[in-house]
Write a structure and sequence with these properties.
The complex is a heterodimer of chains A (about 170) and B (about 300). Chain A is of the alpha/beta class and about 170 residues long. Chain A has helices at about 55-80, 95-100, 120-125, 150-160, 165-169, and strands at about 1-5, 10-15, 30-35, 40-45, 90, 130-135. In chain A, about 30% of the residues lie in helices and about 20% in strands. Chain B has 7 helices and 15 strands. The chains are: A alpha/beta (about 170), B alpha+beta (about 300).
Chain lengths: ~170, ~300
């Protein structure tokens, strides 16, 4: 892992999830990663506690998890005199999950989503987190949710800031 | 062994007394360890006196035992921030840290084997400070160092209890991250580094490790253009431990499209070995987000591993 001096100063996040990846109970896996100084500082890959009914819902749950981590990381950074003045950008490749985070409407397909995951909406409204769309190819958190083809794996690994010892020189 | 007894006595750890009626006494024993240096040669033989903490009873001999340790996320955030600002990170190590912890409870221990005081063989030691092995030793040490940090002007971070911050009016800051008896510190002022190191040296017995190079099994390389962290040595040790050092390396940690399931009818394998492998890999994810998914995937089958999961 290499943290570059010239890397990104602000915290940057990616969140993703697979859908029903577990063969036995059809639960999905959430993953998020946060980058600073062009290296990953905090990441997680975790099977979700509930079965979800749509990819949007699965993505929404991962986004909610990453939002909790944003809150904590921002506090730590504030203590370290590196206050994040702007809202932290978290990239997500699911448009409906982003819409769901901004728009406090309940409709047929999302009304069952558990209240605790609506924590994300609160944070979006307060300007702490901002979900931004990115293409699936730029989605670094993909590496934390599913097995990838070799070329994609190597590309995303690079983007995480992971490198071998000689590569530093 | 003599030097350990000397350290304990110098530290004013205990006093010889008679055991009050109704009090329990805890046994002590010697634990011997051979320390190797980075080349694998014998560095020194170490003897440590430990209390048999497993015989302590909750509520009688100890109450609170929780002691916080730093999260790896925090350590990485500090490293990444230092890389960005071009700060240098230094490392210190407290010698026999737990012996500094002050005890709140009354604890009596027997005299160490081989070091009984002649003429007082029936007496016991009343502990004023903690010994290794006691249930409350880590907590006693944490409260000791916490009190010290707060007394010299540090502020504790409310969201991470092992992160201490000191700021001055001149805008200089010092950050200290504590991991039991190891600590790293960084900041924007060289004079503060010097003062901090000196004050720590006066308060505790310390080893100055200079620039942060090796912390919690993570190798750190500080360069003008950034900071590199890795676990090459640890990864090699894991491979050796599971006799995989001669295996062919793979480029991708998991075959795309490959699905694992519970495999109820598969051939069972030793689940202890499987758990050891998973545990060892788990720590490797400290610097390897790219293998995090696979490690969490295989850890789902710890309960009932079969040949399919190896």
């Amino acid at each position: 892992m290499f943290y570059k001096k010239e890397g990104n100063q602000e915290l940057l996040g990616y969140t993703d999830s697979d859908y029903a990846g577990d063969q036995n109970d059809r639960k999905s896996t959430s993953g998020y990663v946060f980058l600073m100084s062009s290296g990953a500082v905090s990441w997680s890959s975790k099977k979700q506690p509930v079965v979800t009914l749509s990819t949007t819902e699965a993505e929404f749950i991962s986004a909610a998890y990453s939002a909790c981590q944003v809150v904590w990381l921002r506090r730590i950074l504030k203590e370290l005199c590196h206050d994040q003045s702007k809202s932290t950008v978290v990239y997500c490749d699911n448009v409906s999950a982003i819409k769901l985070s901004k728009n406090p409407v309940l409709h047929g397909r999302s009304k069952h989503i558990d209240i605790r995951f609506h924590f994300l909406r609160d944070l979006t409204r307060e300007g702490i987190v901002e979900l931004v769309q990115c293409s699936t190819h730029e989605q670094i958190a993909d590496i934390l949710t599913k097995p990838l083809k070799l070329d994609v794996f190597l590309k995303l690994r690079d983007m995480l800031g992971v490198c071998s010892y000689p590569a530093v020189d | 062994m003599n030097s350990e007894i000397e350290a304990i006595e110098r530290n004013n750890t205990w006093e010889l007394t008679e055991l009050p009626i109704g009090s329990r006494v805890i046994g002590v024993k010697w634990v011997y360890k051979t320390k190797l240096n980075e080349k694998g040669e014998v560095d020194k033989y170490k003897a440590r006196l430990v209390a048999k903490g497993y015989s302590q009873q909750y509520g009688v001999d100890y109450a609170e035992v929780f002691a916080p340790v730093a999260r790896l996320d925090t350590i990485r955030v500090v490293i990444s921030l230092a890389a960005q600002k071009g700060w240098i990170i230094y490392q210190l190590d407290v010698k026999s840290a737990f012996l500094n912890g002050e005890l709140n409870e009354e604890v009596f221990v027997t005299q160490p084997p081989g070091y009984e005081k002649t003429g007082h063989e029936y007496k016991v030691y009343k502990l004023k400070k903690a010994l290794y092995g006691l249930k409350q030793a880590p907590r006693a040490w944490y409260s000791r160092i916490e009190t010290y940090f707060l007394s010299v002007g540090f502020k504790k971070c409310p969201y991470e209890h092992t992160l201490f911050i000191k700021t001055t009016d001149g805008g200089t800051t010092l950050f200290v991250c504590l991991y039991v008896d190891d600590l790293i510190f960084t900041g924007n002022d060289a004079a503060m580094f010097k003062d901090f190191k000196q004050s720590m040296m006066n308060e505790f017995e310390m080893t100055d490790l200079g620039k942060m190079k090796y912390f919690l099994g993570i190798e750190v390389l500080q360069r003008p253009d950034g900071v590199f962290i890795g676990q090459r040595k640890y990864a090699q040790e894991v491979l050796d431990r599971f006799k995989m050092d001669q295996c062919n390396p793979v480029k991708n940690p998991v075959v795309p499209g490959h699905k694992l399931s519970k495999d109820e009818d598969g051939v069972r394998i030793d689940s202890t070995l499987y758990k050891q492998i998973v545990g060892s890999l788990m720590y490797l994810t400290a610097t390897r987000p790219d293998i995090t998914f696979v490690v969490s995937l295989i850890s789902r089958y710890m309960e009932h591993p079969t040949e399919m999961h190896l």
